[in-house]
């Protein structure tokens, strides 16, 4: 029986399967599904009647797509990377209709399409098939307008035979419009194009996390404090069957943006675009499931903010006051505090800032400065009278007090939140200025205020509403239905008064029936090792750094949430991260699941055994009695947003599973010589344990959604089967009846990998110091190891030049040290107080800076000439292949002599900035300059091992573009027969960079350049490269060697070499 594909005609998931099958000439039985509820999948691929796949790209791979993945490690990694990117970036962006994310994806794709018109090589790969299948319905539905080069990329693919045949097969005779229709229905079943609205009879929950200010890169403390905690809760709500939406976005208006724009020489819009993307990318990497991640500068923001202003004005809650402010005649504007400096009135320090003196620490008003200077023009500003509008908070305080009294009780506000709120109310509210002399903001719709905008503290919380309005035109269904909607807000503790006092007062003042905040989840601070995380000082691990560590997002999510500063501050420690990963995730949770799946496969043919009455059922029943209350408690804790406590309970369950496994020695129980009764007991217990695995899949899902996906794949269960409904919770009482007997499990997958002490040490060294001073991934991880290597090699040429800081980084560093004395706090807005909200945030550690600088490093590193003294040797070794006459190449026999294999040393290796599975290396191969090479070894060889590694490289391949990074050679690696191990081919001790590697009897002169269009020389030769039983790399059984001896691999015997 061949594979059977069940799908609705025009489903893009089936499209990729059909194209892959057509390309590989695999026959697939098509069994069109009936028009179903769009929320139901309606898509599956049954491979043999037992195993079925519901993930589209995996299905495409299994029916011929595998043959569309190139054989060599690097090219394969590149294709895998793009295939994953399709699933992880492109599909979600389209499903969410997130215009900015779609735009970013298309730009990334445009940069990836090579000159051949494909993502890699001369023809379509699995990646092209998947991306094409994702784009086609979205473009047919006109959700996306494609422009060159993407439009021509798609057209080129569409014209190819397998793509035509695949489309036809997928449509089953329907019109191509069907692609669009099915996609629109999928969106409706998902989110956004038909947005979720409150539903009668359901619990409707609107979740927000504090809007991150756009001029900075968020650090881990910010991430766990807001978006990640909110995401965990939002995922829990959806899992529980509540009708929940999660709104967030970047807060983009204000002086901070203007200042940042001046610093970077960009417009405010450009700054916002840049940092909005940085934020969006980081959150997407962390798997944050926003229903909308918007931005504040939208016309909805203007409309709603101005409406609220008008209503406040009509209700008489606005008062006008005049004040004196510094005005720069040269710049033609009033100066924000940070744009003024002068002598401190308290200590006479010469360079005091407008808001604070760095010398004595006193808070200042810019008008107090002696001899003030305008920072924009260097001229002396003058005092001018200006008028501003103030919100009359004192007149709103009674209404506000009533709201606080009722809601804090109803919504279970935490003590830390109540304390701050009570202090504000007790001290008495004062009128609060809501306008500013600025341009970058929401215009104030009042006469005489044409040059003014709303102050960010007034404007930013309205962002929650306008971002919802960008999500749905019917935003009032969420925001003006207080009886039907619970508003739950997440933030760091410095943001509390804005959400419990000022924003509620603003809304109350309008007299409209707003949905006011009901529950609030406030985090304390996360500290970094022995210091405070600080955006302004660049201390700690930032969102973009997390990705570069190679530690997967689910591990970060787990660690941060399990360590969430819920009641008090908590500390981020690398050793703790490793300990939690190794002990809790790997040894406890991962080990349990892995054991159960493996055991079921080994002893029960991968089928869940039937539970039978008897001793096994009694034990399982007891287990259920223990487990069910835990599940119940988990749900209760998360309903109260006790995120940190709830996840402990999942581990209690996996511990119980592990214990049962050990206590009853299931491995022994099933042995041949044991009585039938024992075997039955064992079968029943295994059935209960698979039930436990399903329960764990549910409980970890708000924390580690991709881990849950992997568990479900192993269980071969759909996500809908583990919803934490009351029914499911009731069924956890009998875990041995949770999954039906005879249900076939999927293959075992490893869920977590160990973090070693060396990695901990490496990360610690790498992230010590400020972010702006660190080498960026593109600029070579200047780890201790690399530095040592460089010293040992005694080189100061290209390598040293490569890690020297370019001007941009130096500048950033200068700014960093200058900014180091800036007050902490105000890292998100709406912030703790107006002063720091307006502060430019002094963000020298901006990601954009650093990576741009990294790019420069990379570009110039190759242009630096070799150090003196080394030159002569290198000249001798350089390009011996030059003599080879091009004409003769065609007729030569195809063997290893034509491949130019050389000894190389990796000067430095770093993670490819745009592809998770690729390294970029600089390799000294005896030439004047090191070569830049891209290798797909990230999953196989730790970054630290790459540094300084001695390798064998193919130097006469045509340079290839690997996701925008040129690769000028290929590193040889051996792959074990089962594909599990990949190791570098190592040249013999004593061989020098540039030494030729060859096989005895094949001494010919290598081709100058192996042209893949003429003959696939390397591809052919590679089929005869292998490691022998002595772990020696061989060609046709003859050792590959230099004059110093043969090349070897570490452990792989009989491995293929490429
Ligand atoms: Zn002072």
UniProtKB/TrEMBL annotation:
Its EC number is 6.1.1.10. Residues 895-998 form the TRNA-binding domain. Residues 839-863, 880-889 have a biased composition (Low complexity). Residues 819-892 are annotated as: Disordered. Keywords: Aminoacyl-tRNA synthetase, ATP-binding, Cytoplasm, Ligase, Nucleotide-binding, Protein biosynthesis, RNA-binding, tRNA-binding. It catalyses: tRNA(Met) + L-methionine + ATP = L-methionyl-tRNA(Met) + AMP + diphosphate. It is found in: Cytoplasm. GO terms for molecular function: ATP binding; methionine-tRNA ligase activity; tRNA binding. It comes from the Eukaryota. This is methionine--tRNA ligase. InterPro entries: aa-tRNA-synth_I_CS, Anticodon_Met, Glutathione-S-Trfase_C_sf, Met-tRNA_ligase_1, Met-tRNA_synth, Methionyl/Leucyl_tRNA_Synth, MetRS_core, MetRS_Zn. It is an enzyme of class 6 (ligase). Belongs to the class-I aminoacyl-tRNA synthetase family. GO terms for biological process: methionyl-tRNA aminoacylation; post-embryonic development; reproductive structure development. Signal peptide: none annotated. One of its GO terms (cellular component) is cytosol.
